[in-house]
């Protein structure tokens, strides 16, 4: 990791209003919109006495990760390759991998910051309890972020052009949003569906965050699923990524 | 003088087609060495092997005694490169690009005077994506020089520059060399090669067709001297074609153009004198590198 490259990538990220909006602001905005619906603020017996807004805070957190990992990262990495920026960097003492890792670090940090923003706004605006098991929550969040970045790297590795990256990104985007529980929180899914969804990275992440929010240590199965996905996807990205 | 770049029997094929087919040359310290050739001759692939961007199939490449692939980091510190096709992040400004790339090197050049020399000072706050093609090209030249390299490789240096910027860039390259930097220059501009290069390797179909100084290349091509005149009386065709070392005769109306050597010119002047024929508008010129290049690459094709 080269600090000059990292600083530059962070500065460039701030110059992309669309990325700033979708990754950093949109998840919290969605939370605010949902929280403005009165019925979302009423306890629901079918959710064990939780309010829908309580269930949607972890969803907002995961949307931030999906936006950065699956939407923004593959575009950025593929674009850097397509436009010869990686090649240009290969002729300097700094390896092009510095640019890739800086880009991943920026996306990861912004996504985690966006998650924290959702937690804070949820707490202040809608009185959503902060995670009762903060260490477990943070661990789940970081593992989920790692899995999201690894998934984005695989998409970029498999895409020859930014157009392809954008197509694959969109194709992966909706299933991932579904697994994260955007339409139906994973805890409320029918048992059989939930079992399958919990094997996907964001399904497992949703369960882990739920458990930590409720004050339990997240299940090792969920954390294990996340770790396994991260390892497999990272290995795939490393194997398939082409520098040119 | 020691060689800074050594390329020995370099070969590289893509999909069974030999793009570089046994290229050898050495570049001396402080030299401007040109690689000249038609499109698709293997020029860029050759220099990409020197830059360490490609791994040769066989053959040996050394930059200051180092292997550009195995000793990538050491070579990258002493070799600056301007690539034929590359971009920067669209929203990076000129100043940020210069500062960023300067930070990659242990002892970078001062970027302000460099930007000044390349006429980029007024553009420091402009983003890469908003620069004209010529400004982008000048920025890439600056980035190639920013690490204060011992060797700089410039691929299609002045493509996209207007004639004025092109001349300024040539002056810059001469200054860079004067400061002791070795320059490897890929070009298809004859004027550029003739003006800048100490020696030129003409590459055609993946091989070195000729390697010499620009003057040497012109001299060794068949029609190194060109004489044209309008004779005051008709000349015997057989006497003309019997001239020593003649390469070609061409008639356009009354005007005769001969190519050959100085000997041909001497002989035609005595021929005219013997017949008491006056040569009106007599012009004797050296052939250009253009002529030599066409002659050399034609030979290789035949």
TrEMBL record, chain A:
Stretches of the chain forming a coiled coil according to its record: none
GO biological process: response to antibiotic
Gene source species: Streptomyces yokosukanensis
Keyword field: Antibiotic resistance, Cell membrane, Membrane, Transmembrane, Transmembrane helix, Transport
Localization per record: Cell membrane; Membrane
InterPro entries cross-referenced by the UniProt entry: ABC-2_transporter (IPR052902), ABC2_TM (IPR013525), ABC2_TM_bact-type (IPR047817), ABC_2_transport (IPR000412)
GO cellular component, as recorded: ATP-binding cassette (ABC) transporter complex
Span of the signal peptide: none
GO molecular function, one term: ABC-type transporter activity
Positions of transmembrane segments: 20-40, 55-77, 98-125, 137-158, 165-186, 220-241
Name of the protein: Transport permease protein
TrEMBL record, chain B:
Species in which this protein is naturally found: Streptomyces yokosukanensis
Pfam families, per database record: ABC_tran
Domain ABC transporter: 5-230
Gene Ontology MF: a single term: ATP hydrolysis activity
EC number: 7.6.2.2
Chief localisation class: membrane
A biological process from GO: response to antibiotic
SUPFAM superfamilies per record: P-loop containing nucleoside triphosphate hydrolases (SSF52540)
Family: Belongs to the ABC transporter superfamily. Drug exporter-1 (DrugE1) (TC 3.A.1.105) family.
Top EC class for this record: translocase
Domain of life: Bacteria
Keyword presence, Electron transport: no
Annotated protein name in UniProt: ABC-type xenobiotic transporter
Key words, A-Z: Antibiotic resistance, ATP-binding, Cell membrane, Membrane, Nucleotide-binding, Translocase, Transport
